[in-house]
Amino acid sequence: MGKGGSGSGSLSEGVVKKILLSYTYVAIWIFLSFTVIVYNKYILDRKLYNWPFPISLTMIHMSFCAALAFILVKVLKLVEPVTMSRDLYLSSVVPIGALYSVSLWLSNSAYIYLSVSFIQMLKALMPVAVYSIGVLLKKDGFKADTMVNMLSISLGVGVAAYGEAKFDAWGVVLQLGAVAFEATRLVMIQILLTSKGIQLNPITSLYYVAPCCLAFLFVPWIFVEFPVLRETSSFHFDFVIFGTNSLCAFALNLAVFLLVGKTSALTMNVAGVVKDWLLIAFSWL
């Protein structure tokens, strides 16, 4: 009896430890996700740090993340790379990288025009976009009840947009574009990679996708932002601001890796709702 009681005690202790670890991973992910969003808003907002160059900021993030991912995969060998041929990279990873680069560019651009809380409300359309694009690309079958649920979400976002005090039409177009490209990217990952048995975690994703994103972002950057930056003689690269911002962005990817690996994708989605509440509450302060 004594041994049974001891075993039960150690079992419950193990369960408690696992639950505490799960909550810790969730808390870390919420904190880092919150930090990256608010930090990006701070840098890009003309009324705050006043550095309205979303392509440049995205390229800084991608350069930093690509370098650290390379170190983790190739130098320290902490993460196993995925076996990938040149043809597979060009046919599967490159299109995903193109979609990701445009999604990040538009998403960061929206911070210049819209409040953080309103952006989070517009991001609630992501399930609608993913389902709609999945149906269009014949990845998902059309279901009337699912579409009704999606339309109710859209209606809620529409009501929120109508009541938004800082409504900016161009900002809304940018954010909706970001949602559309990100939703397409998520569906294409299913079609181009998952269907072929290729699973990329956040680190290997950065290892393969970040250099590709850099290449795609370089083209608009040369024509849109580089001429303006070249004329801005007063600008000096702030290593503290951009270094810590990029570090937070990379840490967020690590947190996603930990959270999904140790809990589940569903846990991350539920935690995302809590994060959105916190961001909306923070923006009201």
Automatic annotation (TrEMBL):
Key words, A-Z: Membrane, Transmembrane, Transmembrane helix
Places the protein is found: Membrane
Pfam families according to UniProt: TPT (PF03151)
Membrane-topology descriptor: Multi-pass membrane protein
Transmembrane segments: 20-39, 51-76, 88-106, 112-134, 169-193, 205-223, 235-260
The organism's place on the tree of life at top rank: Eukaryota
GO CC annotations on file: Golgi apparatus; membrane
InterPro entries: Sugar_P_trans_dom, TPT_transporter
Presence of keyword Transmembrane: yes
Gene Ontology terms for molecular function: antiporter activity
PANTHER family: SOLUTE CARRIER FAMILY 35
The protein's name in its UniProt record: Sugar phosphate transporter domain-containing protein
Organism: Eucalyptus grandis (Flooded gum)
